Amino acid sequence: MIKKFIDKLLGKNAGSAQGKSRFGKRQEVPAEVHKIDPALVDERAKNVVTTLQQAGYEAYVVGGAVRDLLLGLRPKDFDVATNATPEQVKSLFRRAFIIGRRFRIVHVVYGRGREHEVIEVSTFRAYMDNAAAEQVAGNERTSKGELASMKHAVDASGRVLRDNVWGPQDEDAARRDFTVNAMYYDPANQVVVDYHNGIKDAQKLTLRMIGDPATRYREDPVRIIRAIRFSAKLAALGFKIETKTAAPLVESSKLLADVPQSRLFDEMLKLLQTGHAVATVEQLNKLGLARGIYPLLDVVVERADQPFVKAALQDTDRRVGEGKPVAPSFLLACVLWADVRDGWAQRQEGRHGQRAQPPFPALQDAIDDVFNARIGDVSGRGKLAADMREIWMMQPRFDKRTGSTPYSLVEQARFRAAFDFMRLRADVGEVGEAIAEWWQEFSTADDVRRQDLLEQVREEQKVRQRVRVRDPAPAPAPARPRNEPAARLNDHAESDDEVEVEAGAVPPDGEAAAPRKRRRRRKPRPAGGSGGGGGGGGNAAGE
Fold it and tell me: Nearest Cα to 336, choosing from 308, 311, 357?
């Protein structure tokens, strides 16, 4: 009894059978067993590992990249783990940057612009007992000053706020989340180092948490979201979450209330933008986590079966699968479009006792309402909100295919995103297919073809106008206020010359306009006919 007590005080239990079980047994698996194809390893990741090894440090490809390599997949991202400190890593590379406070890591950057690649390098971390960590009463934001000098700190619930104590590789493996993500691959000698039977779990298609799942979720509740993300990503390969790993998920999800909203927002985007958005929604429903993780994610899951949102989720997965970029603004704009569209209609019609508004102010106010109700104050809202607003505000402009509007619209920075948004609307029947095809051709055509397309629209409008003129019983035009200019046929037009309509012409939205009547305040002069030469200017000046 006394010996056990002394051993516990001196930390000798780390070498006991219990300690071996906690940190696992090192297994070095050769190439003929794991059968990883070296050609699937990124050359820049190899370069980082080689540079660190030549400097005298241990270095391995680690995490999800090793898991994917074992499964015969080409990883999209490569992470490296080493016993070199962040400062030592940074000194070895020309373009390397230390980032993070909670976990200090190094980003080694190759290339520039959109073609650049980042290899993330982390230092082996010690497996620290949270009971021995420094404790703070608040969170990362409220205790920022207090945490600045701490290497290992937790909050009152046991959530780790700082974890920057370096240690050996076996302890680093023990503090990782899932067994299939805790393997190390040395591309030089093609050996996989495995402490927790990750290779066996990969072969059994099992996602298993290292250690006690409830404790691990309490240390970092975001592991709950990671469990969902990995299970969704690997579901197509037949992976399933181990029963013990899945059991505490629902109960532990309450701990997410203490995680900063900005971090939850970023984790939500990872769920939706890694190429498995549809599978993620299925996993959330299957695991009983359809609600409660993050308010905006609740909306995504709730609307996932709606044709427009479903099409957006599928389109996002397709683009990621094809290696094309995706933007959170586009997907969130699709998810919240129903709110914007309904609010826009309500404001134009003056429902619920509101005063009716013109189209564009109504759209702007509807967008503001959605931002306040759904987005809130989260990291990156400035650019996110600006991009979403542009996508939404361009939608009514696609209805106008005359004058200079088509030329100015295709030059907008967010035109492609707005067009793709409108294209999805056409796919679900919200917009005419012909309009989507017209804009598709106009956006890629040369100047001659663009003139032909504009002339085609004018001819179509003339045909529609002639049909309306031959209508034996036309509907009476709504009364126009005495002081309202006849030119205000389209409140969101860009300039006056785009909205003035001559007798027999058709306004921008394709509806035929009633012929302009001559004023009867004075007798017509014999030399002045009813031609259109000065009609527009006269209306603007006299009314």
Answer: 308
